[in-house]
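User: I'm curious whether this sequence folds into something compact or stays loose and floppy. Could you predict its structure so I can see for myself?
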Amino acid sequence: MSPTIDPQSITGMVLAGGRGLRMGGIDKGLQPFSGKPLALHTLERLQAGGGVAALAINANRHLPAYEAFGVPVWPDADTDYVGPLAGFLTGLRHCQTPYLLTVPCDTPLFPLDLAQRLAQALTEQNADIALASAPAPDANGQPQLRVQPVFCLMRTHLLSDLSGFVARGGRKVRAWTAQHPTALVGFDQVGDAAEAFANANTLAELQQLERFSP
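Assistant: Here's the prediction. I'll summarize afterward.
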C-alpha cells in the first residue's frame, strides 16, 4: 500500500466566509440543501469520508448559527476581503494539526474519498500542497481536467509564506500554489461522479444539485 497521511494529522475546514455576491449577498452556507444548511451538509460529508480528524468552519457572518453545528468557527482576522486565500490564512492560523484541508461550502457533492486521495498524492509526490482537478468542458465543449483550487490540502508550515504573499497583494490561489511543490489529483477515474465538483453560484443551481444528493 502506498504511504499516506494519518487522518489524525488533518483538519478539515469548510469555507463559508464569502460574501455570496452571486446569490444576492445572502449567507451561502446557511442556505438549505437536502433539508439542512449547506455548510452543515458539507461538514457531515467531510466527516463521513473519514479522512480528517478535526473539523472547523470559516465564516464571517451569523456566527451563532454556524456555532450551532458543533465545531469551531473561525472568522477572518483581516477586514479586507481577499477571496479564498483569506479562509486559507484563517485556517492555517488556527489549525493544530500538520495539515489543513479546505472545502468550499457551495460544492455539496464532492467525493467522499477526497481527503484520502489528496493525502496520498501529496505524500507520494513529496509535495507541500495537493489540489483536486475534475473534468469540465473547454471552449469547444470537450471535457478537460480543470483544477479546483479551493479543494486544497496543504502543510500548515506554509502560514508565514501565505501571509507574506497576501501582504504583497496576492489574491489568486493558483498564483500562490504555483510557488510550491503541488500535486494535482484527477477525479476522472472510473466511479467518479461527473457532478462531484459542480458548485452552486445561484439558488437555482443549488436546487438543481439536490437531484444528485443521496
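Summary: The helical segments are 38-49, 63-67, 84-94, 114-124, 159-167, 173-177, 203-209. Strands lie at 10-16, 32-33, 36-37, 54-59, 99-104, 129-137, 143-155, 182-186.
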